[in-house]
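Homework help board

Subject: predicted structure for assignment chain

Our instructor gave us this sequence and asked us to write out the predicted structure in token form, then describe one feature. I got the tokens but I'm not sure how to describe them. Can anyone check?
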Amino acid sequence: MFDANHLVSAFGLLGVLAIVFAESGLLIGFFLPGDSVLFTAGLLISQHQVIHQPLWLVCLLISVASILGNQVGYVFGRRAGPALFRRPNSRLFKQEYVTKAHDFFERHGPKALVLARFVPVVRTFTPILAGVSGMTYRAFTVFNVLGGVLWGAGVTVAGYFLGQIGFIRDHIDVVLVAIIVVSVLPAGIEALRARRRTPVRSA
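My token output:
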């Protein structure tokens, strides 16, 4: 279920839209491989495989799905978000996810809605935290639309054009792994910084 090529090939455009929507604001979607799914969708469009709709239409639908997903997350945050901070850890849900997203949002403010789009896990929880924090609906919508288009359409277009390069087309598995690594790199760097800032307790 984490193989982007398999997911897109099996479920087509509707599957891509469902994944984008779920990862953009539903708690159950934080583990989905959104970046690699979008890149793969763009690549397959360039090869006229699986997804046969024109690039502009796919980008439009993906952008709408990502924006709507964030809107749902925001509404959830406004209405039931505080309970999220009291939710116990489970097999899939960890309080650290909420904490990291909260710190990210507090540090970057409204622009976090744009930056978080490119950080797995964080992008799922950020709209919820925007609702919890009482961010105005108008401001949220502006940054949500901007982030949704930049991420949804941007990664798909990148996959479309890069997919036409022979080396990338012939080594798609390696490319998708690289995308995942690049996606989680910001979170990894931030975790290292946080660890360095944490004082070492003496025995």
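Reply (TA_rk): Your tokens look well-formed. For the description, you could write something like this. The mean pLDDT is 80. That's the kind of observation they're looking for.
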